Amino acid sequence: xxxxxxxxxxxxxxxxxxxxxxxxxxxxxxxxxxxxxxxxxxxxxxxxxxxxxxxxxxxxxxxxxxxxxxxxxxxxxxxxxxxxxxxxxxxxxxxxxxxxxxxxxxxxxxxxxxxxxxxxxxxxxxxxxxxxxxxxxxxxxxxxxxxxxxxxxxxxxxxxxxxxxxxxxxxxxxxxxxxxxxxxxxxxxxxxxxxxxxxxxxxxxxxxxxxxxxxxxxxxxxx
Length: 223
Description:
Elements: H1 4-15, H2 18-23, H3 31-36, H4 39-52, H5 57-70, H6 76-79, H7 84-90, H8 100-120, H9 123-129, H10 135-145, H11 153-161, H12 170-178, H13 189-206, H14 210-218
Helix pairs in contact: 4-5, 4-8, 4-11, 12-14
């Protein structure tokens, strides 16, 4: 694999200046900021990510105020009490996206958040304290204990809330293949560990957060 110096020089050439490069890079939230996000906001964003999957984001976002209303502001203690009959009734509500499987995920993830809250004090504490040098471990934890958080949903959710994470988009996977770090989209523990190790090395060389390295790497793919 190539070192960070190559990655930085490639992106400088592509964007023309250091200022242009920095302007397009995301900024992660600090641990304190992540810890300060309330659990109802985490449940809202987690649910938003699930409903966005496979749908046009603007369509989902436009309907989200109605979701906030029918799910009691995503208060986990209220949402967890929503039974099958109430969810079935929501299938008649034209103001929201009527996908029963995704609707059922909301109370299940409310229970997940309450379980974490009981163990750690808040869901934000879990997100804030998880070390970024094992961010794939957090993906696996979310996928295992949450509902409908497999595939790209966990890393995309983390990017939404501001937790530092890389996201294995098609462009990033193509770039990792070009660097001979992996030969296909990473799904196995071995493949994910190889990607994590590569990002840890680039982070050690650069001091940059994973999310910035992820975006820079994706831009090394020629279109």
